[in-house]
Design brief:
Its cofactor is pyridoxal 5'-phosphate. By secondary structure, the chain is an alpha/beta fold. It has 17 helices and 13 strands. Bound molecules: pyridoxal-5'-phosphate (PLP) and zinc ion (ZN).
Length: 501
């Protein structure tokens, strides 16, 4: 639809014009810094930063109902810059001109209701939001679209040139970073650091396919992260981990989309996300707070952050009920099928601590909860979901397992509706499904397959058949007929098919 065809009261708002004034703010000393430079931690005290809009209050001049119309009508436009996460431009990156925005198809991922069988099994109505249907098959594309759009803007306005973007990754960050950087050739190149043998073959293939420099490092993610931090401190590189606050800004789109999907009614809603480096839950909380503060939603949804028993530092921190006594202690991670969340010392922990407090205070009661789940439950719930029409990854299974546990504990009520984050596509983690089906998990995972969920291909090679076809060697007439006949009969027997009369 063309601008002139929209209702008069909305026309002037369709192309975003909010004059945002973004600054980095330190979470510890409240120091504020210009966004002219790429900054990751406070130059004064070393703490992580978040980006704030000093003109945020101007957004309140537009009432909530009008915002609903702006976002809903804007969806009908065919302007590439506004088709992805920047549909919410005023809230995500108002300083970035539309011309500099990189859109590769991210955002607006499907929200799919679970069937009756799954809802009964889980004890609650729920939907998966399939963030695996982003271009590099995980939610990380939201943050990369934001970080790379901003870097692109800096390059275009000659504030920086020839950027080498680096990140450490449990797999998906590097896939997303390499994809977006490759689109911005030749000004931007990327290098990614992965823990050796701790990313899946599919994830490894992604940055390689995008042409990034790929380095495999001994150890786990936390070790890679330290190397990247050292590179960022000592060399001229742009850091693309979620330490980079632009990533957080882009990932807030996940909350905005949920609000829009449920017609801005967040009462009795529960949003469930897995936690690794804790960038995602940071963004999700911040997004809902911003929509609440501008009257776009009038209730803050419950948020449940889920961790595996094998990588649970955030969960452990919140086990202590008395905020005064809480003390953050990094954990040594053990192997986890929720491999992209296998992080013992989350970079965004200070952001989480600040925002959980702020979120609960704004809501007037506790609305953020943390759950811990077993490796067994993660796999069982992932596979059960995928047996019922979903495409959840292990982290989607982790989220669902966390929801079920929260429901059992009474944190979530029967009349509520949950939106469960499947953060990546099932295919990225197909190897764990295979280990489950083959019962070949190494001992330390502690997973024994439920026979009812195991599925294996059956080779149809009837023993009494002399000749079978092979590539380049088709069978001749009668041999071919016998082959077709025999194999069909065997399949019919295995499936108990009734013959047609
Ligand atoms: C990165 C990632 C996570 C963890 O998100 P954080 O922002 O690091 O907490 C979970 N699932 C998948 C698939 C991921 O790629
Ligand atoms: Zn500081």
């Amino acid at each position: 639809m063309k601008i002139q065809d929209f209702p008069d009261e909305i026309k002037n708002y369709l192309i975003p014009e909010h004059k945002g004034k973004l600054i980095y703010r330190c979470l510890k000393c409240s120091g504020e810094y210009s966004i002219e430079n790429l900054l990751y931690t406070c130059p004064d005290c070393g703490q992580v930063l978040l980006i704030y809009d000093e003109n945020f209050d101007l957004l309140k001049d537009i009432d909530g109902k009008t915002w609903h119309k702006i976002f809903d009508y804007r969806k009908m436009l065919k302007i590439p810059a506004l088709k992805g996460i920047y549909l919410f431009h005023e809230f995500i990156g108002p300083v970035i001109p539309l011309d500099d925005i990189v859109y590769l198809g991210e955002g607006h991922t499907p929200v799919v209701e679970a069937n009756k069988i799954m809802q009964e099994k889980a004890g609650i109505r729920f939907f998966f939001k399939n963030d695996g249907q982003n271009p590099s098959a995980s939610f990380k594309d939201r943050g990369m679209a934001s970080a790379l759009s901003y870097i692109n803007f800096l390059v275009k306005s000659s504030k920086i040139s020839d950027v080498l973007a680096v990140c450490a990754s449990t797999g998906d960050t590097s896939a997303a970073a390499a994809l977006y950087a490759s689109y911005l050739k030749p000004h931007i190149k990327s290098a990614v650091l992965l823990p050796h043998k701790k990313v899946t073959p599919q994830q490894l293939s992604q940055p390689l396919g995008s042409g990034a420099s790929v380095f495999e490092i001994p150890g786990v993610f936390d070790d890679c992260m330290k190397v990247v931090e050292n590179l960022a401190e000592n060399y001229n590189v742009a850091l693309l981990n979620s330490k980079n606050a632009w990533r957080i800004l882009g990932q807030e789109s996940y909350s905005y989309e949920i609000a829009q999907e449920f017609e801005y009614n967040m009462s009795d809603k529960v949003v469930v996300v897995p936690i690794g480096n804790a960038g995602n839950i940071t963004a999700v909380m911040n997004g809902f707070i911003k929509f609440y503060n501008t009257g776009i939603i009038d209730t803050l949804p419950t948020i449940i952050g889920v961790q595996s028993e094998h990588a649970n530092p955030v969960y452990k921190y919140y086990l202590e009920p008395d905020p005064e006594k809480r003390k953050f202690i990094p954990v040594t991670v053990r192997p986890s099928v929720a491999q992209a969340a296998m992080i013992g010392n989350p970079v965004s922990m200070p952001r989480v601590i600040m925002l959980v407090n702020h979120y609960n205070q704004t809501a007037g009661k506790q609305k953020v909860f943390f759950m811990e789940v077993s490796e067994q439950d993660i796999m069982d719930w992932e596979l059960a979901a995928n047996h019922n029409g979903h495409i959840a990854c292990t982290h989607g299974g982790e989220s669902l397992a966390g929801l079920v546990a929260a429901r059992k504990m009474g944190i979530v009520q029967e009349n509520e509706t949950a939106i469960v984050d499947s953060t990546a596509h099932a295919l990225k983690f197909a190897g764990f499904q295979e280990m489950y089906f083959e019962n070949s998990f190494p001992r330390e995972f502690g997973i024994s397959p439920d026979p009812g969920l195991i599925n294996k291909p059956v080779l149809m090679r009837p023993a009494d058949l002399k000749k079978v076809p092979a590539p380049g060697k088709p069978l001749e007439d009668s041999d071919f007929q016998i082959f077709i006949q025999k194999v069909s009969e065997d399949i019919a027997r295995k499936l108990n098919l009734k013959a047609l009369k």
